[in-house]
Design goal:
This protein is an all-alpha fold. The protein contains 13 helices and 2 strands, in the order H-E-E-H-H-H-H-H-H-H-H-H-H-H-H.
Length: 330
Amino acid sequence: MILLLPLASFLVALLGTGLVLRLLRRRAILDHPNERSSHRQPTPRGAGLAVIPALALSWLAAGPADELWLGVLAGVALAALGWADDLLHLPALVRLLGQAVAVAVALVALPFDGPVFQGLLPPGLDRLAAGLLWLWFINLFNFMDGIDGISGVEAIAIGAGLALVLWAGGHDPAFALYGLTLAAAAAGFLVWNWAPAKIFLGDVGSVALGFFLGWLLLGLAAKGFWAAALLLPLYYLADASLTLLRRLARGERVWQAHRQHFYQQAADRFASHAAVSLRLGLLNLGLIGLSLGATAAPALAWPAVISGLVLVALLLWYFAGTTGKALHVD
């Protein structure tokens, strides 16, 4: 199972994305560049039509299905809402309400092993705070899906990192398999999305993928691995949150598309999406290492988190301050 399910997830996502790409081209469902875009050529969007089914089927196969199906159905329904948004550009309130319903269903259907916030909050508040954090993570993952390769790299790192942490901690191999199959599906997509991208996830992919990743991270925290649950997505959390706060401080409409994320600034200055995604991948290797260290020695959890914050801050500073003349754009 450890070998076959991730391989199947990878192949379904890889081959399925190729088929979806042909369909999207035939139907001219394209992401046309504008002043806020990081790409220069019309590019098909909707790879989530292959990635999310590959992920959902592999999770149900990893089972037990009777504990998973309602949460998986909520994620698939969220993908359908994302696809409607890709085609029709739904109002922000409709999208947010749909996400809130999906999170509420999953929280009820999939009770975690323990408190997400390690007993710092009463049970009711713990669940409410977990739901709000999950809702934010879904949206920040969507916000951060702005250049070639970045979301595939992030999803692979979180999924594989979670599996390694759980195996190192000798805890819940089935849950670890969810992370590994998600990473495999993201890798199948990344083959098509690496710069220059042939296809984008679209909201059908990025919103649903954020939902499933949030599920994994909250479950990891509820199992007691809170430091790893914070470290693995730390770059995405920091970039999205800091950018949102900066835009709020300037009185901007935060729900509108923009090009102010740190990684977008770096992509402009490097004139290369691949360079930014590779650097994020290297950072994520360090965050995975810190997560494993915190798992092996719980007393080192806070030093690991502080070290992760320093690494992320250095990369943000580097991305914001990188200089260089743009030669081409992936």
